From TrEMBL:
The chain holds residues 1 to 232 of 337 of the full protein. GO terms for molecular function: ATP binding; ATP hydrolysis activity. This is Methionine ABC transporter ATP-binding protein. Residues 2-232 form the ABC transporter domain. Keywords: Amino-acid transport, ATP-binding, Cell membrane, Membrane, Nucleotide-binding, Translocase, Transport. It comes from the Bacteria. GO terms for biological process: amino acid transport. GO terms for cellular component: plasma membrane. Belongs to the ABC transporter superfamily. Coiled coil: none annotated.
Amino acid sequence: MIKIRNVSKVYKSQDKRIIALRDINLDINKKEIFGVIGLSGAGKSTLIRTINRLEEVDKGQIIVDGVDITSLTKKELLNQRKNIGMIFQHFDLLSSKTVFDNIAFPLQISKVNKQIIYKKVNDLLELVGLSDKKYAYPSQLSGGQKQRVAIARALANDPNLLLCDEATSALDPETTKSILLLLKNLQQTLGLTVVLITHEMEVVKRICDRVAVISDGLIVESGKVDDVFFSP
Ligand code: ADP
Ligand code: ADP
């Protein structure tokens, strides 16, 4: 589903050059949960953000469902992004909007009919187990609940790919477990492909099918989780 080919990325800040990605090649299959693990500064965030082009690459291609993301016009990219949901470490909800309106937001931008939005948001709330928080504001929610709202919002346009940027790093271990379980359920019930980045081995061991280890912008190992992290 995703083919990352010879991708390199250099940040230029003032007179410094920071090489964030060095000739990365990766294949991510449809309907798998793929993890990228590495230390802070290894290039994980840069890598996952190239998949929906929140970050531009300097070299290489990112092919998602046959479409080379790196060669799209701005307009084509906005359209393509409906197919790619994303969630973040700090949830990035709109604090002045209710849970309902946060989830409805991407649908409103897509100019979906009000009746359909109402039904869709209620379905999504049920899917993530938050129907009773419909009219709450983000500040009234726990971290786990906020991430559930963010997941519902990310799924509003029915994407088949979900990108998770350190999605459980701000959560305690129990909440992390419940969010990972939700992601696993979504992968199975909706047939989602999930790409996640994390610095925590537990996250990878708990839900990933395959994993790549990134260090200093290089993929140093990749394969099935059991093969990469042998645990007796
Ligand atoms: P990770 O997600 O694994 O912590 P990042 O992708 O955030 O790694 O960062 C990779 C490298 O690129 C780091 O050395 C980081 O300092 C640098 N970097 C990230 N974003 C920028 C930026 N906007 N400008 C300059 N350097 C950056
Ligand atoms: P989740 O159920 O999504 O995993 P958490 O584990 O973070 O969420 O929270 C467990 C439960 O504790 C929640 O369902 C919620 O009812 C309650 N809770 C925790 N913190 C808060 C808060 N700040 N405001 C309201 N309820 C909270």
